[in-house]
Amino acid sequence: MLSAGVIAWIGGVFLAAGFVKGIVGMGLPTVAIGLLAVTMPPAEAAALLLIPSLVTNLWQLFTGPSFGGLIRRLWTMMAGIMLGTVAGAGVLTGAHSGAASAGLGAALVLYALLGLFKSGFTAPARHEVWASPLVGLATGLVTGATGVFVIPAVPYLQSLRLEKEDLIQALGLSFTISTVALAIGLLRTGALASPATQLTGSVLALAPALAGMFIGQALRRTMSVETFRTVFLIGLLVLGAYLAGEALH
What we know:
Blueprint: H1 4-24, H2 28-36, H3 42-48, H4 50-62, H5 67-88, H6 97-116, H7 128-146, H8 153-159, H9 164-189, H10 195-204, H11 206-220, H12 225-248
Helix pairs in contact: 1-2, 1-11, 4-9, 4-11, 5-7, 5-9, 6-12, 8-9
């Protein structure tokens, strides 16, 4: 039975995580798992974020302008994410999950710095036919090891030079598939020791996550494309530094 203090802490975590996601279109799992790990094992934290992550990502996905077009363009990447996450989900509870999280954080920091200094890359459309499934598979394996969905999916999607709202929608699509795949993987490996209890906690975490996301989205709509790009990259930098620091602590 969770104490009132722990329940309040979980609510605050998901409010903050939803706010970050509302602004930059990502960050809920990273923020939530990083902060929740103070009070619980990573696998329990991953189970707790399943419902908030799924619902906020579906919201992000279906409020965008190009759902059908993105599905047709990115379906091989989504298939790779599903396969990789289910195959690698057992690593999340293993002995090397901390090292994987540190590496993920370092990769995010490097990518964000390159972007802020205008050294980012663009993926030519002719390469998507082979790059998308490979990026999806790699993202799935990283998700299985860390519970975080961002590498290499986020840099790859940004390299496609999508419009601001298309990028947000593409992130929603990627993270929705990752959340479903992670749930399947956790169930398959037995990491959900008490599915009914963990599902109840995950449902309760949904309200603060949605509230935070609503506030963040309202703020994002007032930004120019360049301001959004800068905030997006700074968000990646902060999330990466935090993830690496927590893993090495």
